[in-house]
């Protein structure tokens, strides 16, 4: 089996031939057909600290394929499955290999109507976007409201724009790449907001009530700015830190406007919520739109794209074909 293996921190990965016996423990063996490239994958491939917990490691936080062997009653050979998160590519060998041995509870049956390739076109990014939309809706952000998506041209952002627009929200797409305005409007964005405007420091702890809801992939000053500008009883779903992990804010948005800051954890999300999110993605993400959001690359090109995704130069999604 072919696999991309990271041997030590700061050293680029190499394509190696491994035997199935080299795989870590697990009760289900999956023949992997597709994986994807996420921001966290880019960090691992680029040797950034704090992602990979032990070496050697096969990166790839997503995978999809078919069950080859199973010691679990939940799955049988031939079942189409996917997996995202659960420490894959960080603590447990992930999707950048032709075979993966996993625990059964990490697997989700591939939803009806969703191919393995399209599932990985969504991957952790699409899954995170859907969890964010679910959080806004659970906190009462109703269709018709004005919502903003930051990092809108990235994987999470692109899918979030589509899902929110299709659900009837007025979507503002925030990006630092104005040349992608037509792309974002094609996804359903009603307006384009310059990235710098969302992160601009305010004169006080609160700004004009602007956003009924927000999906934030950036963090840092951008997240602080969204909280200041959130409308009464608004909700901000925080799911990324491309702009920094520190958060300089006050309690005023929470105690004077009743704003909710909803954290989105796609890594260790409970199984029931995973099944709901993937079911909704299969139903609510139009296949023709999804097909325009991704490109497919072979495993050999994944390493070279790591710096591109970290620099914010990747539009939409990258599927890795095994």
Task: Please render the helix and strand layout as text.
Blueprint: E1 2-5, E2 14-17, E3 28-37, H1 39-45, E4 62-70, E5 80-84, E6 99-102, E7 108-109, H2 116-138, E8 146-149, H3 155-166, E9 170-175, H4 181-187, E10 191-194, H5 195-199, E11 211-216, H6 220-229, E12 230-238, H7 252-256, E13 260-263, H8 271-284, H9 287-291, E14 294-298, H10 306-310, E15 317-321
Parallel strand pairs: 8-9, 8-11, 9-10, 11-12, 12-13, 14-15
Antiparallel strand pairs: 1-2, 3-4, 3-6, 3-15, 4-5, 5-7
Can you describe what's shown?
The chain is an alpha/beta fold. It folds into two domains: 2-110 and 292-321, Medium-chain alcohol dehydrogenases, catalytic domain (Quinone Oxidoreductase, Chain A, domain 1, Alpha-Beta Complex); 125-263, Rossmann fold (3-Layer(aba) Sandwich). It is 29% helix and 25% strand. It has ten helices and 15 strands. The strands form three sheets. Strands 3, 4, 5, 6, 7, 14 and 15 form a seven-stranded mixed sheet that branches. Helix 2 packs across helix 8 (271-284). The radius of gyration is 19 Å and the shape is globular. It starts with a strand and ends with a strand.
Provide the number of structural domains. Answer: 2
CATH architecture of the largest domain: Alpha-Beta Complex
* Overall 3D form: globular
CATH topology of the largest domain: Quinone Oxidoreductase, Chain A, domain 1
Mean pLDDT, rounded to whole units?
95
Roughly how many Å is the radius of gyration?
A: 19 Å
Count of helical segments?
10
CATH level 1 name of the largest domain: Alpha Beta
CATH homologous superfamily assignment of the largest domain: Medium-chain alcohol dehydrogenases, catalytic domain
Helix content: 25-40%
Span between termini: 10 Å
The major beta sheet can be summarized as: 7 strands, mixed
Helix/strand order, N-terminal first: EEEHEEEEHEHEHEHEHEHEHHEHE
Which strand-content bin applies to the residues? 25-35%
| Total beta-strand segments | 15
Unreliable spans are none
Class of secondary structure makeup = alpha/beta
